[in-house]
Specification:
The chain is mainly alpha-helical. The chain contains three helices and no strands.
């Protein structure tokens, strides 16, 4: 195994379920599918950490004020 990869263990029933799911999906292996899903989750997490600009915060405050929250 190369040094740029690691092994992650998952329960056999989960592995078998994923294997069944990807049978006709275009993924060539359970590993390929799991890497795809994990990358997607990580990218969603990264997007949620994006900071808002002062202008965006002010627009949100104005919208909330227009809705009667301020």
């Amino acid at each position: 195994m190369s040094k740029d990869k690691v092994t992650i263990k998952i329960p056999r029933p989960l592995y078998n379920r994923i294997k069944d799911i990807i049978e006709e999906s275009g993924f060539s292996s359970v590993n390929e599918f799991v890497v795809y899903v994990l990358r997607d989750l990580v990218s969603m997490h990264d997007l949620s950490r994006t900071e808002l600009s002062k202008e965006e915060i002010e627009k949100i405050r104005q919208r909330l004020k227009n809705l009667g929250y301020f």
